[in-house]
Structures are given as C-alpha cells and as structure tokens.
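Troubleshooting: if your tokenizer reports a length mismatch, compare your output against this known-good record of 146 residues.
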Amino acid sequence: MSHSYNKLWVHVVFSTKNREALIRQDIETKAHQHIREQLIETGCFVRIINGMADHVHLLFLLNQQKSIAEVIKQIKGNTSYWINGQSLIPEKFSWQTGYGAFSVSESQLEKVFNYIQYQKQHHEKQQFIKEYEELIRLHGLQKKED
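Known-good structure output:
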C-alpha cells in the first residue's frame, strides 16, 4: 500500500492597505479569530495567529488539496468583507495586495511559533518593513539589483 504524505508548515505575513494601523486592540482578537475560522474552513490546521495593528503573521499546516494562494485569497477577502460588514472600525478596512509565504521545517517550528507569539515585544525594537525585509533575506529571496 502506498501513501503520500505532504506536510507543509507555512508562515504567512500580510499587511493592511498602506500599512495603516487598522487592527486596533479592541478588534484584534475578533479579527484573528475570524482568520482562524477561515483557515479551518479551508482545511488548514492553525498553530498561531498574531501581529500588530498594521499586519498579521499566520503559522499553519497547509491543506494539501489547496494552494497557498487559494487559502490567502479566501482569508484576506473574507476577513475584510467581514470586518466591514460588522462595522468593527469607522474606516473601510482592506488588506494590502500580496503577501509573504515562507515554508517552515519541523525543526524550526517552535522558533517561528515563538517569534509570532512575541510580535508585540519584537516590534518595540523593529518596524514591520525591517522585519519583512529580514524575512525575505533569511529565505534567500532578496530582489536582484538591475
């Protein structure tokens, strides 16, 4: 009997449109819970969700029947629609186009989990753009110069 196992942990980061601080403390728990529900609905096991007012970090096990793009499209589309429909904030909520998605090996899972768990403390020292550039660099994805 042959089995195929496809276990892929993914660390995803995306920001609010224009990196506006729209995910304020009073709605953060509700927004993160809704993202969690969307991940579960797509068949992804959620390890942790956290972030700041202008971005979120997700760590989840990708459903092998789905692409990362499909999952993120559902999460971003559904959560912005839900936040606006619930009138959770006075302004119109939307996410920035795009996202960063990084595979995480089992050996690095706890390290990434802790990194996401302590986002608030981390951002007392480092701004989002610097953090994102560091993630890009660590994964060998820096842009090539012309």
